[in-house]
Request: fold
Amino acid sequence: MATNASVPVIGTVGVLVLAKRKGLVPLVMPLLKNLATSGYFLSAEIIAAALTVSGE
Reply:
């Protein structure tokens, strides 16, 4: 539905990266770890990409 309405889809990790860019969170890695320990699947590639673009 979002794509039909021309709304960009960025996902949970994208939201975390955006939050860091806007200064809303200091670090992305602890949040990614919390997601993973809560059962949210994150591939090593997604984690690496998120850390790279967020400068961690």
Notes: DSSP finds three helices and no strands in the chain. Residues 11-21 form the longest helix (11 residues). The mean pLDDT is 92.
